[in-house]
Amino acid sequence: MGWEGRIKSNHREHRGATEDAEKNRTGINLEGGTDTGFATGRADKSGVDGNGTTDCRLQTFPSCVRLNHMTMSWYEHAVRRYEHRRWTTDDNRMVREFEWGLEHLNGGHTGVEPRLFLAEYASEAIARSEEWFAPAEVSDYRLDSENVLTFTSPLPSPWPENNTVHAQFFPARKSGPAVLVLPNWNAKWQGQVPLCRWLQRAGITALKMSLPYHDRRMVSGHERADQLVGPNIGLTLMANRQAVQDARACLTWLERQGYDRLGILGTSIGSSVGYITLVHDKRVRAGGFFHVSTYFADVVSQGMTTNHVWEALRQEVTVEELRRFWAPISPMPYVERGMGGRRNTFMVYGKYDPTFLPELTEQMLRSLRAHGAETRTLELPIGHYSLELPPFSYVAGYRMITYFLEALG
């Protein structure tokens, strides 16, 4: 019996006690698409569809930007207005039903108390993270005539369309440096292609991987990657685990092609996936990240673009509980274990970011430095979406490419 199975059997013994407790519980374009992050504020529940999901039109101003205009400069006010305007551009966010999702963790349903199971599962996953994030051998890599790499994901999901990984290849040389690019949440197929072209022109090969449940991997009937960041706790855990394993499989392919100086470049959730990949894969020499934060749960509960996700979660779990459940897919636990020490990284972030809040970024940077990480940083006077705007996109892109030329050269 594996450790996941042992967690399930252990919790049958606690069921009686936890039922009583439950009764008393109170309740370039550097960006790649519509959402670039993981919204405080309230969703406008103007309608419920036949599947029990709520129409989330996001018509109200989020509390994170509901500030006294007299306390901020005209410039900061302009940035926040732009962030809010970009956030409201998308009208396809849905407040989906909360689910524990234990079936995605081999937890089943019968006899398992969800909170105890998830807490123990998360603790065990972090303790055995080298094993948890280790991908199975991939044997069906295929590069087509349009330089699109496909292969079967080493961690299959219940949806066949998500189980084929797609990555766009931008070769600069036949060997030498190469960077794996991990885009933002809900990035489109053409998202961040200009950034890959910049890397290519600089002499660095790029491979841009589609994240699980995105573009060509999107589940039929969905317009957004709600499985990667959503109110199904177990599914979100496994989707991000799959993202890390897929990324490591891409690194293996690059290595087999003769690229021996490997880097990783992530944006927003791609930054989270990328950092976890970096600290678990010694082949990665350098990591560049646009937008950085601490815990997955902190971004979901406090950031701007995940208002609709938190709306479904907040009635069922506390932030503290969610932080514990989603700890394995958060950068901070691995920083605190010293796994990022002496790793070469460059982190770009926005002073007025309403999605990856600046105080969370500062907390992350302090922890990195306290645990021996060699981290370069660049703070820009932007928010989250506004990284896409010139001159900031040019400044960030130039500094990032310069960083990789130095780190991988």
Question: Features of this protein?
Answer:
409 residues, alpha/beta, Rossmann fold, three-stranded antiparallel sheet, 37% helix
CATH class: Alpha Beta
Indicate the mean pLDDT.
Answer: 87
Number of domains: 1
State the low-pLDDT regions, or none. 13-27, 36-70
CATH architecture: 3-Layer(aba) Sandwich
Briefly note the structural class of the backbone: alpha/beta
Bin the strand percentage. Answer: 15-25%
CATH fold-level topology: Rossmann fold
How much helix, percentage-wise, in residues?
Answer: 25-40%
Strand line-up of the largest beta sheet: 4-5-6-8-7-9-10-11-12
The tally of strands reads 12
Overall 3D geometry? globular
Order of helices and strands: HHEEHEHHEEEEHEHEHEHHHHEHEH
**Ends distance:** 46 Å
Outline the biggest β-sheet: 9 strands, mixed
What's the helix count?
A: 14
